[in-house]
Specification:
By secondary structure, the chain is an alpha/beta fold. The chain is built from 16 helices and 12 strands. The strands form 2 sheets. Strands 3, 4, 5, 6, 7, 8, 9, 10, 11 and 12 form a 10-stranded mixed beta sheet that branches. A two-stranded antiparallel sheet has the order 1-2. Strand 3, helix 2 and strand 4 form a beta-alpha-beta unit. The structure holds spermidine. Spermidine binds next to strand 11.
């Protein structure tokens, strides 16, 4: 067992207290019949437990895997990286495959929550675009394989009289009261995600999105608290359907795929347009990547790697993007991705846009300041 720095021990301890401690809350764990014979042949487990972001895979991809390989997938979902971490830290030991984002992969490696993977058992890893291999948060892909990537920006209602004249091109549209009062009666949603919301405020204030400075973070908190009375909802789980497509809001802090999903779901053949547009603010913001990883506590490691390999198959990876509208890091999948998605700059932005965006890092000990700011924001 790796020795952890004091602040990581504190994170582990605090989460255990918060969640009651002890093994609970996760699916049951057993090898479910997974065996590896002397020649290396694997008999897959009868079950595999997968814990993913809400609405992040077409169910058919799961049922196809079950039918083809005879492995029952026990599927569960989470809403944020912090929820995923809290669940694992609460002692839930039954999850085999999880999908943390970039900065959370780094933190989970530090906390010894991830198992190493054997890339020789994942031949479809060769399908991954070089740009997404060997990311700084997981050098050598020792622990995870890339799943989906995207950006964070502002989705807004096409045809709204104010936005027709003033297309939201700045985070000011999320934070400045004199703008917010022009359209807040139509409803505004923000992502219920601590790093994302704080990063949007940091970007607007011109600070580094990975700052560890208390002064910067307090300024971000204050900006958020000034705008909060104008916001209707904090939702990052089902906002695409329940708020955007349903016309319950006119503007939302949004992940690229959810904004594009709302566009395509409201697409009108006659006008050849959808109801939702997506903008990356001129101040820049977050680009992120979610990853498929195996938990340290998994007892079905070979089956989990087999499932990771399946997810990286070119047609399966394309089917994921055709469902989620997020970017695929899988170069071999591109020909199978629907043309309108492949050519949509909201999903695959041009280099000049990507250059304005930043990956989030593990904030180290400053995680306590982020937590403190988030508590004040949500209080
Ligand atoms: N509906 C699934 C959305 C997954 C988005 N993950 C984004 C993480 C960014 N920090």
């Amino acid at each position: 067992m790796k020795k952890l720095p004091l602040y990581l021990l504190l994170i582990a301890g605090l989460l255990l207290v918060a969640c009651g401690g002890g093994p609970s809350g996760g699916p049951s764990s057993n090898t479910g019949g997974e065996t590896t014979s002397d020649d290396g042949t694997v008999q897959l487990a009868r079950e595999l437990s997968v814990y993913n972001w809400t609405d992040y895979i077409d169910e058919e991809i799961i049922t196809n895997y079950e039918a083809e390989y005879g492995v029952k997938i026990i599927y569960d979902t989470f809403a944020s990286n912090e929820d995923l971490l809290a669940k694992l830290q609460s002692g839930a030991t039954g999850y085999d495959v999880i999908f943390p984002s970039d900065y959370m992969v780094a933190l989970m490696i530090e906390l010894d929550l991830l198992a190493e993977i054997d890339l020789s058992q994942i031949p479809n890893f060769a399908n991954i675009d070089d740009d997404f291999v060997n990311a700084p948060f997981d050098p050598g892909n020792k622990y995870c394989v890339p799943y989906q990537w995207g950006t964070t920006g502002i989705a807004y209602r096409a045809g709204h009289p104010f936005f027709e004249e003033n297309p939201p091109d700045s985070w000011a549209y999320l934070f400045e009261p004199e703008l917010l009062q022009q359209y807040s009666s139509g409803g505004i949603n923000v992502l219920n995600d601590q790093r994302e919301l704080i990063s949007a405020a940091l970007a607007y204030l011109g600070h580094d999105l990975n700052t560890r400075s208390r002064t910067d973070l307090e300024a971000a908190r204050d900006l958020i608290l000034q705008a909060k009375p104008y916001w209707k909802t904090f939702n990052s789980e089902d906002y695409e359907d329940s708020l955007m497509v349903a016309d319950e809001v006119v503007l939302s802090h949004s992940w690229s795929g959810d904004a594009s999903g709302a566009y395509y779901k409201t697409y009108d053949e006659e006008t050849e347009d959808g109801n939702w547009y997506f903008a990356i603010p001129k101040e820049g913001g977050v680009k992120w990547m979610d990853n498929a990883c195996i938990t340290k506590s998994s007892t079905r490691h070979a089956t989990a790697m087999h499932f990771l390999n399946y997810l990286l198959d070119a047609e399966v990876a394309a089917a994921v993007t055709n469902y989620t509208y997020y970017g695929s890091p899988n170069a071999a999948a591109l020909p199978f991705i629907l043309e309108e998605i492949r050519n949509d700059p909201s999903i695959f932005p041009p280099e000049e846009t990507l250059n304005k965006l930043q990956w989030l890092d593990d904030p180290g000990e400053a995680i306590f300041i982020y937590d403190e700011m988030w508590t004040a924001i949500k209080g």
